[in-house]
């Protein structure tokens, strides 16, 4: 992997800001048990360039500061995204499998967090929390992320910009 440059830092900042903006625009679907976090489709970018991971992780962290689950979601949700991004980078040669990683890790980690935190209020069974978070991530990654992935792969200008 090439050295991390100032240009890489700037691109990561832009990606992180875009992630945060999408979460806030679609905040009504970005949190709680049933969630379709539209910004998650941006995770496909690490399939083109692993150096884009810091911007996505920072975007997740900053977005989760607005979570109804508070600081717990800020830390746990960011951990889930970090695990998903790491797995995506390791599986980037198998894109369809890599796209499952956000659904799997967020389903498990965020699903467990929702289950655990809901024990003091209305009980949400773990399998229910896992299923809803998994489903939301799966839909976003395959309905939005996959077509965008193929579009970037075919568009030489965008592909070249991301793989610098």
From TrEMBL:
Q: Note whether Transmembrane helix occurs among the keywords.
A: yes
Chain ranges passing through the membrane? 12-34, 41-63, 69-91, 96-117, 129-152
Instruction: State the InterPro entries in the record.
Output: QueT
What does the UniProt keyword field contain? Membrane, Transmembrane, Transmembrane helix
Give the highest taxon in the source lineage: Bacteria
Q: Which Pfam families match?
A: QueT
* Coiled-coil zones: none
Q: Which PANTHER family does the record associate with it?
A: INTEGRAL MEMBRANE PROTEIN (PTHR40044:SF1), INTEGRAL MEMBRANE PROTEIN-RELATED (PTHR40044)
Protein name in UniProt: Predicted membrane protein
Q: Which organism is it from?
A: Haploplasma axanthum
């Amino acid at each position: 992997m090439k050295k991390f440059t100032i240009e890489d830092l700037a691109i990561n900042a832009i990606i992180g800001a875009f992630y945060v903006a999408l979460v806030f625009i679609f905040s009504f679907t970005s949190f709680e048990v049933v969630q379709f976090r539209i910004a998650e489709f941006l995770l496909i970018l690490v399939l083109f360039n692993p150096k884009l991971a810091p911007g996505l992780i920072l975007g997740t962290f900053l977005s989760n500061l607005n979570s109804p689950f508070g600081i717990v979601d800020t830390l746990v949700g960011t951990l889930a995204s970090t695990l998903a991004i790491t797995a995506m980078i390791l599986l980037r040669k198998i894109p369809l499998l890599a796209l499952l990683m956000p659904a799997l890790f967020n389903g498990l980690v965020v699903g467990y967090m929702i289950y655990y935190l809901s024990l003091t209020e209305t009980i949400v069974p773990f399998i229910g929390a896992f299923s809803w978070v998994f489903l939301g991530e799966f839909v976003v990654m395959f309905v939005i992320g996959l077509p965008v992935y193929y579009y970037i792969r075919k568009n030489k200008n965008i592909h070249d910009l991301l793989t610098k």
